[in-house]
Each structure stands twice: as C-alpha cells, then as structure tokens.
Design brief:
This protein has one domain: Metal-dependent hydrolases (TIM Barrel, Alpha-Beta Barrel). It is α/β, with parallel strands linked by helices. The protein is globular and about 45 Å long. The protein is built from eleven helices and eight strands.
C-alpha cells in the first residue's frame, strides 16, 4: 500500500473531472491507495474536499504562498469557516498547503515578504485553533518557517518537498514533522537531497509526488527540448512506487520496507489519515 502525501489532483494538467478520474484509477492500479490533496487557495476548498470524498482520498485546506499576494482577511475568514464547518470530516487531515517561498522573485520584496509571513502566521494560529497539523511549502524558506513555528507551535505535520540542510531537517523533525521526498531524489546531481534521503531517521520521512509538478528524472524534459516542442507527461502518483525504489536503494533497504515506514510516518504526523488507513487494513 502506497500513500502519496502530496498530490494536486485538481490541477489543470490532469484535465477535466473524467480525465483526472482515469489518472486516479491508474494510480490505484499501481498500488497508491491514498493521496493527500492540499488546497492552494480559498476557491478550491470545496474542490479538494469533493475529490477526497469521491475518490477515497484525504485533503487539506490552506492558502499557498504563491497565492499570498491576492489573499487577505476574507480568505482567512473563509478558511476558518470551512475548518469549523468540516471539523468532523475525517478526511480533513491538515491545514495546507501553507508556508513561505524564497525563490519566486516577485515574492521577495519587503512588502510581499511581510504579507506572506502574516498570512503564514495566521494559518498557523488556525491550525492550533482547530487542532490540526500543517503541510508546509518549504522553498528556500526553512529558517523563516522554523522561526514562526517556534513562536506559534503546532502539533507537527509535513515539510513538503524539503530541500534544506541537515541542521534544518533535524529542527523540523524535532518539532514532530516528517520531511517529504519525491521526484528530486531520483536525480544523480541532487547531492544534498540524496544525502538527506540516506541519513534521515526512519521515522522522519514521507514520500510524495507533488503531482503534476516535480517530475522524477525519467519524466524530466530539459529546457532545450521544451523549446524544441518536446512535452513531458504530467508527473502523477503512478510514479510513486518507482520513486520509492530509488529512495529505498539510497537507504540500503527495499521498497516494501519503505512503503511500511511511509505509511506509519504519514499516519503518525497526520492522525486522521492514520484513522482512515487503519480501517482499510
């Protein structure tokens, strides 16, 4: 049984509802029993919820830092209202995807940073209020994320697509987070990520695809080939077992062992997910 702890099934790359459902069937046939589907802005809260109920997946609600510039108090109020209204929904497993982005240039102005950090802090407070873990967007922002977590501690969660240092990794794990590993670990040149994959404690990781983004090496198309008109298929949870094989090899273990560890870790840091997966066993 594979759990993909981060997949955006509502993304345009998966097509319309019927096409996305076909992708989901393929993922299930590949052994991916459950996907965590995070929202990215207030407009898709119902969409991810409806998907989770229709496809036996789970979901998270939050405002992604790439949408922070257009989000304000009304969006936070809507998030609070939905977390309240759906509090009893066992498929609502976290507040996410939230966090900070230190890579996109237009998000690095003083005003943009201040606004994004205020939005992040507000969502941490909502996670505390509603007793939920968080799914964090971590891109060149680990230290800032940790700073605010020290001031507004939550129950834990997932540091999605983690790409920080070993010291930062340990700091997240100490705060009851697991680090998310996906397609990046399949690239020979991803030395820092691969070193972390080898050294992270067996209780400190989860696996993810971030589909349709962060393709593994075998799906990646270089910029030169893209300019020549070569298009890659979207990354999808069907790739997770093969990503896990690479991860297992790096750790000197087997994919079945990694599958069990991934499920146990995801269930621990997202307790409602654990309740659902335990009912299936």
């Amino acid at each position: 049984m594979w759990i993909d702890t981060h997949c955006h099934w509502d993304a345009a790359e998966f097509g319309d509802s019927q096409q996305a459902t076909a992708w989901r069937v393929q993922a299930r046939e590949a052994g991916v029993s459950t996907c965590v589907v995070p929202a990215v802005h207030a407009a898709n809260f119902e969409t991810v919820r409806d998907w989770a109920h229709a496809h036996n997946d789970v979901y998270a609600l939050g405002i992604h830092p790439l949408y922070a510039a257009t989000a304000g108090e009304a969006d936070l109020s809507r998030l609070d209202a939905c977390l309240t209204a759906w509090h009893g929904d066992p498929r609502l497993v976290a507040v996410g995807e939230i966090g900070l982005d230190g890579w996109v240039p237009e998000l690095q102005t003083p005003n943009a940073i201040a606004h994004a950090e205020a939005l992040y802090r507000a969502q941490l407070r909502l996670a505390k209020k509603h007793g939920l873990p968080v799914i964090l967007h971590v891109r060149k922002s680990a230290d800032r994320l940790l700073k605010h977590l020290r001031e507004i501690p939550v129950s834990g969660g997932i540091a999605h697509a983690f790409n920080g240092s070993a010291v930062q990794a340990a700091a997240f794990i100490d705060r009851h987070f697991c680090l998310g590993f996906g397609g990046t670990v399949t690239f020979d040149g991803a030395n820092q990520i691969r070193a972390l994959a080898k050294s992270v404690p067996e209780t400190g990781f989860v696996l993810e695809t971030d589909a349709p983004d962060i393709p593994p090496s075998w799906l990646y198309v270089t910029a030169e080939r893209r300019r020549a008109g070569v298009l890659a298929p979207p990354n999808a949870p069907t790739q997770l077992p093969r990503i896990a094989e690479v991860f297992a090899t790096l750790r000197g273990t087997t994919a079945p062992v990694v599958a069990l560890q991934n499920a146990a870790n995801a269930s621990r840091v997202l307790p409602r997910l654990g309740a659902i997966t335990s009912q299936r066993q």
